Amino acid sequence: MPTYVAPDGIELVYHLVGEGEPVVCVPGGMLGSAYLGELGGLSQHRQLVMVDLRGTGESGGGNWRCDQLVGDLEALREHLEVERVTLLGHSAGASLVTLYAAAYPERVEKLVLATPGTRSLGIEVTAERRRAVLETRKGEDWYPQVSAAFEAIQTGEGSDWAALSPMAYARWDAEAQAQQELEDGLANYEALGVFNSPEAFDPAATRAALSTVEAPALVVAGALDWGTDTVAAEEFAEAFPNAQYVVLPGVAHHPWLDDAEAFVTTVLRFVRG
Question: How many domains does the chain have?
Answer without folding.
Answer: 1
